[in-house]
Design brief:
The protein is α+β, with helices and mostly antiparallel strands. 29% of the residues lie in helices and 21% in strands. It is built from 16 helices and 21 strands. The radius of gyration is 24 Å and the shape is globular. The two termini are 35 Å apart.
Amino acid sequence: MKKHLTHILAVILVMSVLFSIAALPAFADGDKELFIATVSGSGDLDPAGIAIDMWTEYCKLCVDPLIRFDEAGNIIYEAAESYEVSDDELVWTFHLRENGKWSDGSPVVAGDFINTIHRALNPDNGMSIYASVLYSIVGAQEARSGEADLNSVAAVALDDYTLQFTLKAPCTYFTSLLTVGPFYPSKTGLATLEDPSWWKNPASSLGNGAFYLTDFVDGEYYEVAKNPYYWNADAVNLDSIKVYFIYDQQSLLAAYQTGEVDVATGLPDYIRDAYAGSDELFIWNMLTSKFVLPNLNVKPLDDLRVREAIALALNREEICAVIGADYIPSTSYVAEFMLSNSSSEYFSKEKAPLFTEDIAKAQQLLADAGYPNGDGFPVLTYTYPNSDKDALLAQAIQAQLKANLGITIDLIGVEDQVYSSNRSEGSYDLIRHSWTADFNDPINYLDLYTSYSGGNYNHVNLPEYDALIEASNVTADQAERNELLHQAEQLLVGENFFVIPVATQVYICLWNPRLSGVTINEKGEPMYRYADIAA
């Protein structure tokens, strides 16, 4: 009955948005095309710029980094064909494939990687949100701050096909950093800071990947075509791919169900039940963690017993049942689907849970802190970004803390800009936080709470934690490093409850069953470079 009603609802919703779908640009006939729709078109297509949502899909189609990783975390050589590391693990030398070409037929050279790096580190580039991933390179941080010249950065082109990085200290996850925007190439002379919109123009936005940009319409769509100069062009089956930005989930669903698009990502949570068992359903296991951040400067949240009581009093299964099927209960801060560095397991599954939900223990902890049954506990606020999902999450947390601990939480839903400001300025008691990994390594989560991190919004200051992170950064033994990272997460979450995990998020997607050849990368993202679609 539930599924039947869901299908009826879906049909009604489809009919209600047909007019919006009719407004989509007309599709060309003849070529083998793939049409993708997604709910997010934020960011830009500049690897040295705001390389977030839109870039994430685009780069998988049009821009090859030095290396990528497959679903199991194995290296796939892309623009590079080999590399070596010095005995002291400080000098990394990459050899580019000499048949790598841009979509205009010109060669991809080491200087094109330097072009992105220098633009990302340029102090005048206010859009370079990921410049910090370059800071392991000698001189990079100093160049970004304006204290040193860009030419002093130890990222150099030894010749057209040899790229060398010299690091400040050994970095065992350096290969993972190579998958983040500033390490991607951009065509020298065309991708410049002088022309901040170069990436919108097909004449200057060249691709060295399987496809290249042919059309871009702000906020609506972009289109790419097969790159005839791609080094592996014979393996590319599609002639073109069009990516639409459809911000309303029901319109997104309608676009798929009416056949306007072949792939729809970020669909409503009820689709998981409605299409259960169908080969059209794809669950994108995102590296996204949702958690509550307590302000350590607000009483009584400065008391470990209170923070632990809040963490143990939450029933995450019930919370996720309220929010929807795109949320999975989690007591891990590092996202559930993050790969391990030293085993075939997910990082979160290698150890026992960081803590166990226990209402009775939570009540005792609160009593020990001086608030039996919540008596005398001050009214705290919980701040969250003003969206439907986050409102449901906030209400579920509020209800459980009242029922299980007897404490009152006032909810404050704010617009995204206000939310970000409050979080950065520490203007909150409890706040909903979220982190999506930029690369597949637990350090991308855990280094946020070092005492010197700019993302340490509740000002955790634990020398023992800093020492574990620093030790993990310099050891060459991946098993030892993994153990250090587990110890760090246990200290951060399981012992001090500086972070209170709630859920891991997934994307619910539908795709045309005629689609084949889609691969998955190490972040759980679908890759369409070598996909095909049957007639």
